[in-house]
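Chapter summary example: a protein plus pyridoxal-5'-phosphate.
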Amino acid sequence: MGSPKVREYFKKKYLEMVERGETWELLRLMGPTGPRAIVEGREMIVLASNNYLNLANDPRIKRAAIEAIEKYGWGAGSDWSIAGYTDLQEELHRKIAEFKKTEAGLAFQTGYGVNAGTIPKIVGKGDIVLSDELNHGSIIDGIRLSRADKIIYKHCDVSDLEDKLRKVHGKYNNILIVTDGVFSMDGDIAPMDKIQKLADEFGAMTYVDDAHGEGVLGEGRGIGVHFGLEDKIDFQMGTFSKALGSFGGMLAGDREVIDYVRNTARTWLLSAAYPPSVTAANIKALEIVMSEPERVRRLWDNTKYFKKELESLGFNTGKSQTPIIPVIVGDTKKVKELARMLFDEGIFVLPIVYPMVPRGTERIRNQVNADHTREDLDKALNAYERAGKKLGII
Ligand SMILES: Cc1ncc(COP(=O)(O)O)c(C=O)c1O
């Protein structure tokens, strides 16, 4: 038992969060995740998962993991930097580079760990980071750990970025521009072509978080390939935990960059290797995405259909350009009620409220899956129509 004073302190803090509606209710899946899943004992259509390409339960990936357990055992036994590195892991590094069309690749324990560990080692005191105002929390943490100065530029606003670059140019040792590739709450795409052009003009380094771009953009290879900038962007961060249906982070770039990061990033150096079965699963997931472009095409067909139909019903989908399609409601109570009504109709969606998005933009974030059938999407659209009308949203 800890101290009663500490217990009281955190109880008060927690209850305040409950009062503000800022706590998460955990819903239990009772089997594999996919376009449909058993949630709290009921079959639901899933519109709340990052599993865009439906690979999380792919039999070939499961087989690869099982075979790796048989050959390598379960645990890695150590950090990759010490005694946990395998020939399989080396193969994964080569595959990451092939996938991203870069010279070198590196796997990390998580995508969070890439941002939190890499950014503090590529900039520090005397440097400056220019960061999009809607960047992911792991980027924000990475910048905080770096001790570099920071300027936030307006979301995807290249003229604001240019103004800010002009102000800082010549005053710092290094300038780093960092942005999400696909923004996780709005589903819009960073104008990486224009950002890279500005970076070249001002001698800045570029770092892109491709967590929601892999499997989606550039025939599945992500934002670098989408813009033809795979050999221009200095740091391409990614994750296996979303469209690749697996687990772990990745970084792609030039050989020198990868060698440097591998020898400095503390999240890589000072944390255990994930099990070899995860490595094998990640290799297989990359192979599948590279060899099955029809999966990505199905994802885009579903995305276009679902977005168009939501809009024609009168819903506000914001600036979405990808399978992340928000329905912006702009009211905490209403959005929670909408999510509850959809849930009752067998549609698994989650409301996203402040502080995850600014007040007044509370929303449901839909994420489309390559293997949703037309019937699934129509069922979801019908439920949206009924609930939206009842709540006076449309
Ligand atoms: C934009 C973005 N970056 C990084 C991450 C972290 O990736 P991982 O789940 O592999 O830690 C996420 C996941 O939520 C994300 O959405």
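Key point: The mean pLDDT is 97.
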